[in-house]
Design a protein that fits this description.
- The chain is α+β, with helices and mostly antiparallel strands.
- It has one domain: 2-Layer Sandwich (Alpha-Beta Plaits), CATH 3.30.70.
- About 15% of the residues lie in helices and about 10% in strands.
- The chain contains two helices and two strands.
- A two-stranded antiparallel ribbon has the order 1-2.
- The longest helix has 5 residues.
- The termini are far apart.
C-alpha cells in the first residue's frame, strides 16, 4: 500500500526506516523497517503517513518468575 513518499523516513528519529530498491505492485518503492532493533515505537512514522498504512506497536516483554 506504500506510495513511497518518504515522509516516514524523514520522521524517524532513530533512522530505522529506509526506502526499498524494488517497486511494489503499485509501482512505488516502498518504505520498510530496515533496523527494527533500533526502533523504540515512538509512532512518528505512523502519524506522518498520509495513507495510514503504518501500524506501530510495542512488544510487551514479560519477566518469568
Amino acid at each position: 500500500m506504500c506510495k513511497g513518499c518518504g515522509l516516514c523516513v524523514a520522521a524517524c528519529p532513530r533512522d530505522c526506516i529506509e526506502m526499498a530498491s524494488h517497486v511494489n505492485v503499485k509501482g512505488y518503492p516502498p518504505a520498510f523497517h530496515a533496523h527494527p532493533d533500533k526502533c523504540r515505537g515512538c509512532g512518528n512514522c505512523g502519524v506522518v503517513c498520509p495513507d495510514a498504512v503504518i501500524d506501530v506497536f510495542r512488544e510487551i516483554k514479560v519477566k518469568k518468575g
